[in-house]
Amino acid sequence: MTESRGTGAPGGESAAFEDDDYRHAVVDLLGAIAYGELTAFDRLSADARLAPSLEDKIAISQMACVELGHLVQLRDRITELGSDPSVAMAPFRQALDLFHAHTAPADWWEGLVKAYVGDGLAADFYREIAAYLDTRTRDLIVSSLEDAGHSDFVVDRVKAAIADDPRLAGRLALWGRRLMGEALTQAQRVAAERDALSALLAGGVDRPALDLAAIGRLFTRITERHAERMAALGLDA
Amino acid sequence: MTESRGTGAPGGESAAFEDDDYRHAVVDLLGAIAYGELTAFDRLSADARLAPSLEDKIAISQMACVELGHLVQLRDRITELGSDPSVAMAPFRQALDLFHAHTAPADWWEGLVKAYVGDGLAADFYREIAAYLDTRTRDLIVSSLEDAGHSDFVVDRVKAAIADDPRLAGRLALWGRRLMGEALTQAQRVAAERDALSALLAGGVDRPALDLAAIGRLFTRITERHAERMAALGLDA
Q: A47, A57, A65: best mutation site toward chain B, by most B Cβ within 10 Å?
């Protein structure tokens, strides 16, 4: 679909990394995703304490550990690109912490919906950006954003809970819209503040730019996928 | 060193499981260890939030995930033995929750020492009991109690912190004694309340009993190993 930057020499880095701005932008992006994984581990391991059963608790804890594994991969790659992972993650701390502070789940069900819908939104967004990057970065991002293998678990649990208590559907549908709204607010904040990331989207000498129409289509796709996830849960988007 | 119960038929259970009391006692023991792993995951993932650096945070979170992996193995084995893992874990909830409530770390350093010294104590205790059990149960317990691979990390960090601030050594030495005291208190409570586990230690028709002298030697060994761990941290036991 999208032009991507070459595969690079075997065993080496893509030629794209000869451009220092490009390297900065990639480190920025990996830092953002890494900080997201870090907060995901925190959040899921805290949510595990709300689990109504041992099986649920183990399932959500296992999701937390999958996110931790991704964080380790991203940290190693940032180091390999010559940057300090903590420094790379720092600029995204405020936006992600605010997102989580504004969307603290009130109960187990809100936590489950947030894990599924919130992580899905972030994954869609980063995957869209990854399409414009060198192969190696793209593969790392796509594998870091892989479903922690537990979407079926969330869908199954939420649908069963709504069947038990249909009033829950209204509350969780509102919750899904709030998650989407907060995610867009914080994404805009990051885009406005991070020149390197914005420059990536704006293209460069040898890079395809993301024009306004393309950005519009990107958000349409992200919104559509959000609606599909909500529908999978049996909720109105 | 210790007599153990046969290896059992290939692919089958040890003959020891024909004795229903034995099966109960093993399920009890696995339930106790499993609940310990569950609380370890909770505690370590909460401690991770206190970590002073990204590297420390990742290291302690990885320890949490190793404990979760052990919990999954123990849960599967309890299910295989025909019992419900939640039910098997329930009797140990109060003692372990009290242990953790009475030993909530005040800071990162107390959390590190607790992870190393507390888990070490539990591991020594369960390994001693495991020596009296069938091979398969023993192997499962020993692998569940394996060092999460991060002892070196704790020793390294605590020694460096004490070198930076020698007053810390006094506080952490007291903390280590308090951990030992609380662990013994709660272990006694469990032994007094759980007939199946006590019967295991008291032996049976075809089982070697643990007489008072043997129990005394067991506690001597556990105390000695505790002192070794404290010494490894550079602390008085």
A: A65
| Contact of B143 with B33, CB cutoff 8 Å | no
Residues of A at the B interface (Cβ-Cβ below 8 Å)?
A: 38, 41-42, 45-46, 48-49, 53-54, 57-58, 61-62, 64-65, 68, 71-72, 75, 85-86, 89
pLDDT in tens, chain A (237 residues): 444 454 444 456 778 888 888 898 899 999 999 999 999 999 999 999 899 999 999 999 999 999 999 999 999 999 999 999 999 999 999 999 999 999 999 999 999 999 999 888 888 888 888 888 889 999 999 988 887 666 888 999 999 999 999 999 999 999 999 999 999 888 888 777 777 677 766 665 556 666 777 778 888 898 999 999 999 999 987
Report the gap between the CA of B148 and the closest CA in chain A (Å). Answer: 14
Query: Would you state the torsion angle of the CA atoms of residues B95, B96, B101, B102, taken in this order, to the nearest 10 degrees?
Result: 70
Three-state SS sequence of chain A: CCCCECCCCCCCCCHHHHCHHHHHHHHHHHHHHHHHHHHHHHHHHHHHHHCCCHHHHHHHHHHHHHHHHHHHHHHHHHHHCCCCHHHHHHHHHHHHHHHHHHCCCCCHHHHHHHHHHHHHHHHHHHHHHHCCCEHHHHHHHHHHCCCCCCHHHHHHHHHHHHHHCCHHHHHHHHHHHHHHHHHHHHHHHHHHHCHHHHHHHHCECCECCCCHHHHHHHHHHHHHHHHHHHHHCCCCC
Q: What is the pLDDT of residues B4-43, one digit of tens each?
A: 454 444 456 778 888 888 898 899 999 999 999 999 999 9
∠ CA B197-B201-B204, rounded to 5°: 100
pTM of the model: 0.84
User: CB A38 to CB B46 under 8 A?
Assistant: no
> Tens of pLDDT along B32-74?
999 999 999 999 999 998 999 999 999 999 999 999 999 999 9
Q: Which residues pair with A5 in a beta bridge?
A: A134
ipTM: 0.81
Which of B68, B85, B86 minimises the CB distance to A65?
B68
Distance to chain A for B87, nearest Cα, Å = 10
B48 to chain A: which residues are within 8 Å by CB? 41-42, 45
B61 and A49 within 8 Å at the Cβ level: the answer is: no
Closest in B41, B49, B57 to A61, CB measured: B41
